[in-house]
Amino acid sequence: MIRKQEGKIEIIVSVYWILILTILLAVFMQLLQFQATKSYVEDALAASNLASAVIDIETYGILHELIIADPDAAYDLYKEALKINLDLNDYWENTNKAIMTGQVEILEYVIYNVRGEDVEIHFFNAGVRSSWTVYGGLGSVTAQEGTLIETTSIYSRIGFPVEGIMGVLIDARKENLVDIKSE
Amino acid sequence: MDMLSVGISIIALSIIMICCLNIMQLASGKEEVRQLSRQYILRMETIGYLTAADKTQMLHDLEELGLEDVDLTGTTFTDAGYGNPVILIIQGSLHMQNAAGDNLLNMIFEQQTYKITIKRMSTAKN
Lengths: 183, 126
Prior knowledge:
Number of helices of chain A: 3
Strand content of chain B: 15-25%
Helix content of chain A: 25-40%
Number of helices of chain B: 2
Distance between the termini of chain A: 84 Å
Helix content of chain B: 40-55%
Shape of chain A: elongated
Number of strands of chain A: 5
Strand content of chain A: 25-35%
Oligomer: heterodimer
Order of helices and strands of chain B: HHEEE
Radius of gyration of chain A: 24 Å
Number of domains of chain B: 1
Strand order of the largest sheet of chain B: 1-2-3
Largest sheet of chain B: 3 strands, antiparallel
Shape of chain B: elongated
């Protein structure tokens, strides 16, 4: 009778350890997945910002200023690049649900054109552009994430849901700023 | 009974560990291919397309990473011109060594090739 009970306890302890280890491994794998998603999105975001950084050659030739002359064309290029670099379908969803569970949304896309001491800002929110200039703003204007604007730059921020452990949905946000410098 | 429960525990833990190792190995292999594609899209951005020499070198590098049956359909092979999109698409089968080595458990995880697709887009700055 005592031997039978000892056997039962051993099975329970074994199952307990297997469960604990499985949970720990699941958490570890989830962290690895989050890390992979973070790296994947950061990389794609930087690449898409750079893809949209098409400077006006004429202005550069005449004034030696790096200017993104057509903000709307730059935004279109950014969207096209983001879609390819993040491998999104026509609904702006990644085919790999482990990376991104739902639709990717462009929250902000901002072009900072530095013209002499002035900073010309083109701000896209939900695809709608607002433009203004901060006269004498060089050295004081900062990007959305706090970086001081010193040269023509592009900032973007996207949002997307990620599924965590037990199906919990996390609203993830990622941002990136690239600055353009002449060699 | 004691040996049975210990044996089952060891087998169960081994299966879980092997699964995790295989997933990690696949993720690592895919990440290496992705980093390589990043290097080549930057070159394409500078030159305006994937040159024949770069293509040969890239295929060699991909082979070293274990990528087989490489297909570059959709990649920009001619000069795109300043400001126009340059695209790099790498499709292939990633050949992975089974993390568990040669033993009976390999029978459960015998599939060692995984189809992957890497897409990159930038604009020509040449």
